[in-house]
Design brief:
mainly alpha; about 55% helix
Length: about 475
């Protein structure tokens, strides 16, 4: 059959089915039953009895579900291939407890006779049921003796045992069974709702979606015409779009909803801080670390606990709370989550080498600072010494302004420089050291004030004698 003819036949069958769901006949009374009136005391007693029954039944159901949950958890621990809910659903697919019954000769003979009669039917003909052939089967069964019955049913009994073993022990596709159950149940619900709409004129919308990604059923939408028009005209959306959004919410949960930039940044900062502290505790164990230090990391963390930080992905080493870029926070979170950025505890030999290198670097820094201070102080005192020599040598020789301008100006003060290779305990992805923020020193009280040459005691010059 061509595809377009097949589709047309499906549509025609659906239209025929929907026509059967409606009628123009009015409902009439077809039951006549005398109502037995009860007193107020009887009604109150019956109400108490019903309430007690509901409570006891609900408690029994909860206890039964707990037992099944325990068995599902036991299966999960024993086999461990699926989740607890998977095993729970597989157990609950059996509608009732079934007892094991022995395969009898009579059952095997009935099965063989029914199959024999059905095999003689032409293709497409309605097949016989066992109840329809029961008089003939019973008459033939009575005409046979015990040896004939054994010979007739021996092979059938063995095949029935194999069939039972297959049904009991073969692997079941739980999700396929759940899909079939969902489709059949929704089909019945659709039929009932359609008949309700025809009887009472009730308008309704039915949305059915899966709750997790393990199930296979697609979003199901069933509605009346006026309900669909309401969504299209008033809410400016279709029921199909609403069903897909509803499925996304049920599968992803609240975490899948759109968040503002600020909420996402704050959540990333919080998760990063907790993750970094947790990883620091693990790396420093058995020593206990109270908090994570980003300022003076080498002094507060590496020197105390022998832990270094490797593969820091950002150019600046700082607390996640000081980072406001969402992209940088995501990069940092992914690096910590994948263990690309990690804490590593130094061995005793490595820690000894680190302390020695750190001590040598500190001594080199102190030596360079001392040399800079001495050279600066020597050059700064030269102008004062020259002026004092002039005063002592010849008190009447006063230098002119021209001679003072010939002298070179004093050199500018030199600042201390931090050594290039500083051991901070934090390393980038390339293996180079990352600059760690140091705690600022206390500022001088005369910072920003203009400072001139020191004021010395001026030497008094004798007055020149005048001839009388």
């Amino acid at each position: 059959m061509p595809p377009h003819e097949k589709a047309g036949s499906v549509v025609a069958r659906y239209a025929s089915t929907m026509r059967k769901m409606s009628t123009t006949k009015k409902q009439t009374v077809w039951r006549h039953r005398q109502r037995i009136k009860q007193t107020a005391a009887q009604k109150a007693l019956l109400k108490v009895k019903r309430k007690k029954h509901r409570e006891e039944y609900a408690a029994a159901l909860i206890a039964a579900r707990d037992v099944v949950k325990e068995q599902a958890a036991l299966l999960r621990e024993t086999f461990g291939r699926h989740s607890v809910n998977y095993y729970f659903e597989e157990i609950m697919q059996h509608s009732r407890l079934t007892g094991r019954r022995k395969v009898t000769k009579w059952n095997a003979f009935v099965k063989k006779e029914v199959e024999c009669h059905n095999s003689a039917l032409p293709a497409g003909e309605k097949r016989y049921k066992a109840c329809e052939l029961m008089p003939q089967i019973r008459a033939r069964w009575k005409d046979m003796d015990e040896h004939q019955r054994t010979a007739e049913t021996e092979d059938i009994i063995e095949s029935m045992r194999e069939h039972r073993e297959m049904k009991e022990l073969s692997s079941h596709n739980v999700m396929l069974g759940a899909l079939a159950d969902t489709n059949k149940t929704l089909e019945k619900v659709n039929r009932e709702l359609t008949t309700l709409h025809s009887r009472a004129g009730i308008e309704f919308i039915l949305l059915a979606v899966r709750g997790d990604t393990e199930h296979w059923n697609q979003p199901h939408v069933f509605n009346t015409a006026r309900a669909a028009e309401f969504f299209d005209s008033c809410l400016k959306t279709s029921l199909g779009t609403l069903a897909f959004r509803f499925e996304g919410y049920c599968v992803a949960g609240v975490q899948g909803l759109a968040k503002t930039h600020l909420e996402e940044v704050l959540e990333l900062k919080k998760n990063l801080s907790e993750m970094i502290l947790q990883k620091l505790w693990t790396a420093a164990s058995p020593k206990q670390v109270q908090r994570m230090y980003y300022t003076n990391f080498d002094t507060n963390i590496t020197a105390k606990y022998g832990v270094v930080l490797e593969n820091w992905p950002l150019s600046k080493f700082c607390c996640p709370g000081d980072i406001n870029s969402r992209n940088e926070l995501r990069v940092l979170f992914h690096a910590w989550e994948t263990n690309s950025t990690r804490f590593r505890r130094l061995s005793d030999a490595e820690f000894g080498d680190w302390e020695t290198s750190r001590f040598n670097a500190a001594m080199a820094q102190m030596s360079s600072n001392t040399d800079v201070d001495l050279s600066t102080s020597d050059t700064a005192l030269l102008p004062d010494l020259q002026s004092s020599d002039l005063v002592e040598g010849n008190s009447l020789s006063i230098p002119t302004a021209a001679t003072s301008t010939d002298q070179p100006p004093p050199p500018a003060p030199q600042h201390r420089k931090r050594p290039a290779a500083e051991l901070t305990g934090v390393f980038s992805i390339s293996g180079e050291g990352v600059t760690v923020e140091k705690k600022a020193r206390k500022e001088r009280s005369d910072k920003g004030k203009k400072r001139g040459p020191r004021k010395g005691t001026r030497v008094a010059t004798p007055a020149a004698s005048t001839p009388s």
